[in-house]
Task: structure prediction
Amino acid sequence: MGKCYCDYGFSGIECEIKHSCEKNCNNRGLCFRGQCLCEPGFTGEDCSQIAIKFDSCKNNCNKNGVCKMEKCFCYPGFSGKYCEIKHKFSCPSNLDIAVNPKNNTNHSGKKF
Result:
């Protein structure tokens, strides 16, 4: 006698048992055999509870980054554990490509 290999979400001898999870795990986890396997940062029977500490990303990475798995990932121009360091960008003043718009010359006086 052969054995049935059931599609995802079903089990039983003839795959007659359908497994479902409460509130479809709130789209924050995977339903496996009727139980939610929650994504990192979420917990509870239906993955509805936040599992990370509220201060783990200090003021939501100071609004200069994104908090994922209790760690800050900083936007360009910011760094530090909580994205608290802002970098200043400046160009060197001696670049030969600076343009004088009045007479279409560059820094060296050459016309372009």
